[in-house]
Amino acid sequence: MTISNGTRPSHHTVVAIVEDKPGVLQRVAGLFRRRGFNIESLAVGPTEFEGLSRMTIIVDGASAPVEQVEKQLYKLIDVVKVSDLTHEDAITRELALLKVRCNNVNRHELLDIANVFRADVVDMATNSLMLQVVGDEDKINGLIKMCEPYGIRELSRTGTIAMTRGQKTTTVHESEPEAIARVHQSQGRRVEADLPFSSD
Amino acid sequence: MVRMTGSQILLECLQREGVSTIFGYPGGVVLPLYDTWPQFPAIQHVLVRHEQGAAHMADGYARASGEVGVCLATSGPGATNLVTGIATSFLDSTPMVAITGNVARTLLGKDGFQEADITGITQPITKHNYLVMRAENIAMAVREAFHIAKTGRPGPVHIDIPKDVFQEEAEFEWPEEINLRGYRPTTKGHAGMIRRAAEAINRAERPIIISGHGIVWGDASNELLELSEKAQIPVITTFLGIGGFPETHDLSYGFLGMHGMYHANMAADEADVVIGIGMRFDDRAMGRFNDFNPDATIVHIDIDPAEIGKNLPTAIPVVGDVKRVLPELTDRIERRDRSSWLKWIDKVEEEHPSLEIRETRRLIPQQIVRTLYEETNGTATMVTGVGQHQMWAGQHYFYDSPRKLVSSGGLGTMGFELPAAIGAQMGMPDSEIWAICGDAGFQMTMQELAVCVDERLPVKIAIMNNGYLGMVRQWQELFYDENFVSVAVTQPDFCKLAEAYGIRALRVETKAEVLPAIQEARNYDGPILIDFHVDQDENVWPMVPAGAALSETIEMPEKELVR
After folding, report:
1. Any idea which residues of B carry the catalytic annotation?
2. B20-47 burial, b for 16+ CB within 10 Å, e for fewer?
């Protein structure tokens, strides 16, 4: 069973915008360990602003009330903003690389499977091929399941990242830079919220 | 802008932050700092005898004076020795800045001599910490550290500085502004929540206020008094909240919890609206969470949003600074007569007195504490260790103003008393400071006696000497079938020990000697130690056994009544 954004029901998607400073990952990880919150996955990367990083943390909500997770995160001085995207209309994505056994006989089957999952073949050898797939947790689990009978030699998955759909953001600086807004206005363009969003 | 060394920048910044006293211990990597010290004669360095003492002294200094306490240690073992003191400060939310040196930047991470990853170690026991890698960053780190330590919910902040950063030169500029985008404590309470809280209180037949350490640190005693008096709401405090509300006031009903007053525990359990103010519904105060007064509406006012709902489900949370929130709440509260509710508590108190001190043949610690109270008229500051004597010092001395009881409540750190009393005396030179010690805890930090002598501090040291780890013995007696294991403590002759340091000492073995000894100590201008030989088998009552509910408070069993 999944909820709207493709994660498991007890899993919560928490996004923390943090100062890009040494030790910030340890502070967050240490907080989760100390308070007994289970991290299912963690992905860290830069944001649109220099000096700020974005952490996407998938928390097992069965291990702790997510409200406590958020509040405890906020207590860290280096954490600037925390958002719970679990019940938001959000896109969640992870990326996986799979090295799957194959031979001349069954390679086509695998390519068919990859095609269905819209996975890319990024490397090929005589007795294996490497697939790259992007999607939510369920989609990647589905591909893995389909590849298992052939023999998965190696699997590497990133943590999940997430972003809300539409105009709403989880970033720190909400307002559109004035210069850009002026250009939009002068050209009679509508603001982003009015544009139809494309579903993947 | 001036070019200065890292050492000069650090001391200059500390001076600008108003620091006059630092408790510290030199060592290899902080030598550049000590080398610079004579250029800053306005900052006094108090040489401790163990770094743990430095941290407790800074903590005691902060708790007694309300100012940020500062301690300093060298790298490695010096830094790790601070850890217990930093954790003590963290659990009780007291403002402290702990400074450590570390090995030079080129050696960091190479397991050099006396290297410890001390910022890694202190990260979960500090409000924030810094590893300052450039001299030009020292000023901002110090500025932020003091700001973080004393604002919002106070707490310890740790600054670690590698040796060569002390020596490095940089342009010094005092940062006038701090911009911490991840730290903006909420001080103003939500108007809607305050209104809901007021409505709940106005509807309440049996409201009770449980006030905590936040009243002390939020400097909100008067605001609390106005709220309580206007609506005739009885006030009980947590252990650390003692003194936040005058204990001799008609509406004061003592403190609650594991060794709180019987009537306070029953009142908390009987109330229809429980108003927690500047407290965190801790297990020692509330007993078994699941059975804490399940019918009560809980109103929780605290500056730390993470405390809301952490332990108990809260109906009406108000996040904000108690000093701002309470007057707004009081404005919306109706004057009401609640005499029948007050009478109910009075009756419980009458039928189950918790603070009566019985006549005994042997000397018991309660009598000593009560005599101290009567002799000092409640004006002295009691600094305690942890255990039975701590509870008796809380119970039998009555505190009418904040900062008069200094005690490690959260972490429960034995050995806190002597160094914290030294710090308290340094922070409040004109106050009468009593270190109320256990004979076991005293032996954990007694090397700091030397500091009393160095600094000529008139600290009065009272050891409640029962030859036992008293509280542990009590638990073994009550809950481990009197299987006494490793609780009898052999001791030195404390009087001879004090005298060896050049400290005056008195031994008291009978009840008749108590008053003269206390009087002599009060009249003596200098450190003095009294070794009170007290009854060995005395237990602290009332008691809520660990894991029991407040409604299951046990009073002193009859067999213990006479001894």
Report:
1. 51, 113-114, 163, 471
2. ebbbbbbbebbbbbbebbeebeebebbe
Comparing alpha-carbon positions, the chain A residue that sits nearest to B310 is A68
All domains of chain A in start order, with CATH: 11-88 (3.30.70.260), 91-157 (3.30.70.1150)
Residue B97 pLDDT greater than 90, yes or no = yes
Strand partners, B434: B382, B460
Contacts of B492 (CB under 8 A, 6+ apart): B443
Residues B72-94: what's their mean pLDDT?
98
pLDDT score at A189: 63
Instruction: Determine the Cα–Cα distance for residues B359 and B46; give it in Å rounded to an integer.
Output: 44
Going by C-beta distance under 8 Å and a sequence separation of 6 or more, which residues neighbour residue A130?
A97, A98, A99, A100, A121, A122, A123, A124
> Which residue shows structure tokens 């007696």?
B477
- For B490, the token pair is 């052999």
- The answer to whether B87 and B408 have CB atoms below 8 angstroms apart is no
Residue A196 has pLDDT above 50, yes or no: no
* Model pTM score: 0.93
The CA-atom distances, in angstroms, between B87 and each of B69, B81, B91, B388, B523 are 14, 11, 6, 22, 36
Chain B nearest C-alpha distance from A33 (Å): 10
Query: What is the band of A3 on the pLDDT scale with cuts at 50, 70, 90?
Result: very low
φ and ψ at B343, to 5 degrees? -65, -35
Q: Give the residues across from B100 on adjacent strands.
A: B73, B160
The architecture CATH gives domain B191-351: 3-Layer(aba) Sandwich (3.40)
| 3-class DSSP assignment, residue B210 | strand
Question: Whose CA is closest to B372, among B353, B351, B348, B389?
Answer: B389
Q: Which fold has domain B2-172?
A: Rossmann fold (3.40.50)
Q: How far apart are CA B514 and CA B524, in angstroms?
A: 16
One-character DSSP codes across A29-67: HHHHHHHTPPEEEEEEEE-SSTTEEEEEEEEETTTS-HH
Instruction: Assess whether pLDDT exceeds 60 at residue B522.
Output: yes
Give how far A123 is from chain B: nearest CA, Å: 39
Cross-strand bridge partners of residue B276 = B210, B300
Q: Are B43 and B21 in contact (CB under 8 A)?
A: yes
Give the whole-angstrom CA distance, residue B71 versus residue B86.
10
Percent helix, percent strand, percent coil in chain B, to nearest 5: 40, 20, 40
Q: Does the beta carbon of A30 lie under 8 angstroms from any beta carbon of chain B?
A: yes
* CATH H-level superfamily of B365-540: Thiamin diphosphate (ThDP)-binding fold, Pyr/PP domains (3.40.50.970)
Find chain A residues with C-beta within 8 A of B319's C-beta.
Answer: none
Average pLDDT for chain A = 86
B501 touches chain A (CB under 8 A): no
Least CA distance to A18: which residue of chain B? B182
Give the model confidence (pLDDT) of B270-284 as tens digits. 999 999 999 999 999
Residues of A in contact with B148 (CB under 8 A): 77
Residue A195 pLDDT greater than 70, yes or no: no
| pLDDT tier at B559, thresholds 50, 70, 90 | confident
Every domain range in chain B assigned CATH 3.40.50.970: 2-172, 365-540
Mean pLDDT of A10-38: 92
A149's CB contacts (< 8 A; 6+ apart) are: none
B82 phi/psi in degrees, rounded to 5: -75, -20
The H or E element containing residue B130 is strand B128-131
Give CATH 3.40.50.1220 domain extents, chain B. Answer: 191-351
Q: Is the pLDDT of residue B449 over 60?
A: yes
Coil, strand or helix at B148? helix
Name the pLDDT band for A177 (thresholds 50, 70, 90).
low
Distance between CA atoms of residues B274 and B192, nearest Å: 19
